[in-house]
C-alpha cells in the first residue's frame, strides 16, 4: 500500500511569521507577502548556517 502524503502545512505560532504567504505562479515566479530583505533578516536570526559552523573537522579533497 502506498503511503499517503500529508500536504497540509505545519502550523507555526511565531509572531514574526504571521501573515507570511508564499506562492509560485504559473511562470515559476515566487510571490511573497513580505520583502526579501525581511525574510533574509528573519532567517539570519533564526537559522544556523552549517557552512559557517566550525566543527574542527574540515572536509578537504
Structure in words:
The chain has 61 residues and is of the alpha+beta class. The protein has a domain at 19-44. The chain contains 1 helix and 2 strands. The chain has one helix spanning 36-46; strands at residues 22-24, 30-32. A two-stranded antiparallel sheet has the order 1-2. The chain is extended and about 40 Å long.
Summarize the structure.
The protein is of the alpha+beta class. Helices cover about 20% and strands about 10% of the residues.
Features:
two-stranded antiparallel sheet, 2 strands, 18% helix, extended
Present the secondary structure layout:
Elements: E1 22-24, E2 30-32, H1 36-46
Antiparallel strand pairs: 1-2
What is the strand content?
5-15%
Overall mean confidence score, pLDDT: 76
* Residues in helix, %: 10-25%
Biggest β-sheet: strands ordered side by side in the sheet: 1-2
The low-confidence runs, each spanning 5 or more residues with pLDDT under 50, are none
Please state the CA-atom Rg, rounded to the nearest Å: 17 Å
Structural class by helix and strand composition: alpha+beta
The strand count comes to 2
Specify the number of helices. 1
Q: Tell me about the biggest sheet?
A: 2 strands, antiparallel
Q: How do the helices and strands follow one another from N- to C-terminus?
A: EEH
Morphology: extended
Amino acid at each position: 500500500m502506498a503511503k499517503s502524503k500529508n500536504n497540509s502545512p505545519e502550523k507555526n505560532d511565531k509572531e514574526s511569521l504571521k501573515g507570511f504567504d508564499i506562492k509560485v505562479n504559473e511562470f515559476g515566479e515566487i510571490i511573497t507577502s513580505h520583502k526579501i530583505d525581511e525574510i533574509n533578516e528573519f532567517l539570519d536570526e533564526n537559522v544556523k548556517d552549517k557552512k559557517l559552523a566550525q566543527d574542527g573537522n574540515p572536509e578537504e579533497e
